[in-house]
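During the reporting period the student researcher (J.K.) took over the structure-prediction task from the postdoctoral fellow and processed the backlog of single-chain submissions. One of the processed entries is reproduced below for the supervisory committee.
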Amino acid sequence: MPDTITATKGDVPDNANEHCPGPESESAGKADGCAGCPNQEICASQAAGPDPDLPIIAERLSCVKHKILVLSGKGGVGKSTFTSQLAFALASDENTEVGVVDVDVCGPSIPKIMGCEREEVHPTGHGWSPVFVQDNLGVMSIAFMLPDEESAVIWRGPKKNGMIKQFLRDVDWSSTAEGGVLDYLLFDTPPGTSDEHLSVVQLLRESGITGAVIVTTPQEVALQDVRKEIDFCRKAQVPIIGVVENMSGFVCPGCKGESRIFYPTTGGAQKMCKDLGIPLLGSIPLDPSIGRACDFGSSFLDTCPESPAAKAYLDIIANIKRIIESK
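J.K. obtained the following structure tokens:
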């Protein structure tokens, strides 16, 4: 699929020419109708026809009950933090098997946040084995394959897309999950609506996506990019579970009082969700303990269970479970 668009009816790109043959056609990028199309060069350079790895990926992920994308149009809103704490919370039930795929190829922070940096991926007879934070919580990230923590990943789209495909095709979750079933597979994505997002959506086409949780902060500069992410989900036909408003206030560690840091000048996530008809899963206040937990790779819900932010996390997780189970 071209990396500047998303597919709509018949897999024809949203911004394609009128007589587009489709990105999976043998004449993609070469037909007369492709002349002048902004996607022509990309279509012409990719292999024609359906990706032969899609059925393999679908079979590999057939053991996964729920596949959840954590998205945000804006960087720095706490998306990776939310993914990690969601994973820790889900895995607090020892009967629930959880996996996290770090799709942020150029900025992989999940291993640091989840306390498993400097680990290595080990091949098995069934594929790559994820790195386990605890018995029922596994992680896969490119960070495990880098020579050191400061090594930059300087890749163009095709190499990033190839790595994401390997994460989906080659990682074996079934042999490590209890009973061969993984209850939740969370995908921590980079900001925006580009290569990584398109790759994940396309590669999960046959196995299915449960939905997306979109993270924002209250101020308009974040919300304007989050609206683009919502538009991406709708065009790519990714169900939206709901929106999480992060950093919605500051909780004083002394008096436990809350004050606004990022003021919602346009009504914040609550008004945006009302306008767009999307569930607001909840709001998480700022708490310095969250940052400390991430730096030390621990579960914030375990270290500060009485914090208002911990209660907000638990309410949001309950809402996510309720919405998923109702589908």
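The committee noted the following: Residues 1-10 have pLDDT under 50 and may be disordered.
J.K. will present the remaining backlog at the next meeting.
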